[in-house]
Each structure stands twice: as structure tokens, then as C-alpha cells.
Design a protein that fits this description.
2 domains, 7 helices, alpha+beta, 18% helix, 9-stranded antiparallel sheet
């Protein structure tokens, strides 16, 4: 199975899937598709903000916003909140620069965010959050602070399902990803958004960047002081146009809430404290 994923053109297939997802469909067909998908993946349409006239494309449905008041952001100034609705795959301290991918498999933080920031988070903490197909797919700030930089690392688009995560070392460092750097009162916090197969794009709220582009090259962008973006905990950072994984890195160590590994969390829920 792993060999198959290495051979098939996942980037091209994901682009095609993205084009199809953004193509307007007859309302009757899209309504049936949304109903089928919602039932299969347990989507809570009661929470969704549905535009007048309904969704026009599958992408519009998948990237749906929530009704006001559907999520509560933990107000504690020392809390680190989940930036997404997701399952907590793993969490802990970054020991000797290593992050736990799965049982018995670690990878280097320097491989996840290569370049000027790679040593910043050694000795800090991490949390890996997996978004299922039925989850709300907007990504939010886990802390209050200022966006000072972002980084784009093109790569493969392997699936991030559990079976491959437990088989392929360094999977998250191989896949395409975009990282947002937030300077907070508790040190620097990185929100690494990892692409996957059928993720046609990752887009950002604060910059005109999108992923899965032809001939893309990695780059690191430091924002000029007058262009840095001040954000509150829970503000939107970007969107997955189909699901994947978010890895949060903190410069300072955190105390994680007990027994959250393997548990579902919602955006705004406290997962750790500085």
C-alpha cells in the first residue's frame, strides 16, 4: 500500500479533486451530495452557517463557517487552546529536538520547519491534531499575540490516516505544509498546517498564499513591523480545503490536560497551560 502511494501522482490528483470541488453544481445534486457526505462522516449541519440559497460548491460546504456562538474560546491568559476541531494524535515535550509521530516513531523538529526557526522550539512542547473528513476545517489562533512570519514548504501529499502515520517515519516532514509564527506573551508559538491527499489547497486569512501549486519553492517570510497582524486567541488563521493535520509547537513547555491523547477536542478548548 505504501508503494502505491509513492507511485501515484497525489499532487495532480489533489489538484483535479480541488477543481471539481470548486465547480458549481446543480442545487439538487449538491444537496444530495452534502446529505450523503454529512451522514457518512457525521457532519453537524446544525452548527454550520449556511448561506442564503445554500452552498454553491462542495468546497464551500467543506470550508463552511460556524454559526455565531458554536465554539467557546477558553479565556485563561495562560491556556493554549486547540486551533481546530480534531482528535489529539499525540502531545508532549520536544526532547532533543524530537517530536513523537506515532508509537516508536519520532522525527526532528528541524525537518518539520527547516531554516531559521528550526532550533527555536527545542525544549518546548508540541501537540498533533488530526482533522477527520467530517470536522470543521477552519484553523484558528491557539494564543493571543502577533503574527510575525510564515513559512511554506512544498512537498508530497500522502494521506495522513493512522495506518500511514504509523508506517512512514517523518510523514509530516515530507508532506506539503504552511507554518504560522505567533509571538505571544508566552514565547513563540508555531501553527504548522500539514497538507494531505485530496487537500486541494491550504489558504491563509492574513496573506495571499495557497498551496499545491506547480513549480512551488519553499520560502520563509518575515513580516515587516507595520504589516504584522495582531490576533486574539480564536481568530481565524486559515482554511483546509479538505482535511489534514495541524501541529502546534511552543517555545516554552506546557502542561497538557491529562488523558487528551486519542480524544476529540473542539476549537477554543484548552489543551494545555503555560
Amino acid at each position: 500500500m505504501l508503494l502505491i502511494f509513492k507511485i501515484i501522482p497525489t499532487r495532480l490528483l489533489s489538484r483535479i479533486f480541488g477543481i471539481v470541488a470548486q465547480t458549481p453544481l446543480p442545487r439538487s445534486i449538491l444537496k444530495k451530495l452534502v446529505a450523503w457526505y454529512s451522514k457518512k462522516f457525521n457532519v453537524s449541519l446544525e452548527e454550520a452557517h449556511i448561506p442564503p440559497g445554500g452552498f454553491r460548491t462542495f468546497d464551500e460546504f467543506f470550508t463552511r463557517n460556524l454559526k455565531r456562538g458554536m465554539r467557546t474560546v477558553d479565556p485563561d491568559t495562560y491556556s493554549l487552546i486547540s486551533p481546530v476541531d480534531a482528535m489529539v494524535s499525540s502531545y508532549g515535550d520536544i526532547v532533543y529536538g524530537q517530536i513523537v509521530q506515532a508509537k516508536g516513531i519520532n522525527y526532528d523538529v528541524a525537518s518539520l520547519i527547516p531554516g531559521v526557526m528550526e532550533s527555536t522550539f527545542i525544549g518546548g512542547s508540541f501537540a498533533t491534531l488530526y482533522l477527520s473528513p467530517g470536522d470543521y476545517h477552519r484553523i484558528h489562533a491557539p494564543v493571543t499575540g502577533t503574527i510575525t512570519a510564515y513559512q511554506y514548504d512544498p512537498g508530497r501529499l500522502y494521506t495522513v490516516q493512522d495506518w500511514l502515520v504509523s508506517m512512514l517515519p517523518g510523514l509530516f516532514t515530507v508532506n506539503e505544509r504552511v507554518t504560522t509564527y505567533i509571538q505571544s506573551a508566552h514565547g513563540l508559538v508555531a501553527v504548522c498546517k500539514v497538507g494531505a491527499m485530496n487537500v486541494g489547497r491550504i489558504t491563509l486569512r492574513y496573506a495571499s498564499l495557497y498551496t499545491n501549486r506547480f513549480c512551488a519553492k519553499p520560502y520563509f517570510h518575515i513580516m515587516e513591523s507595520h504589516k504584522q497582524v495582531t490576533i486574539q486567541k480564536g481568530d481565524e488563521l486559515g482554511i483546509f480545503h479538505l482535511g489534514s493535520t495541524v501541529i502546534v509547537l511552543t517555545q516554552k513547555r506546557c502542561r497538557f490536560m491529562p488523558a487528551i491523547a486519542g480524544k476529540k477536542v473542539t476549537m477554543g478548548q484548552a489543551i494545555a497551560f503555560f
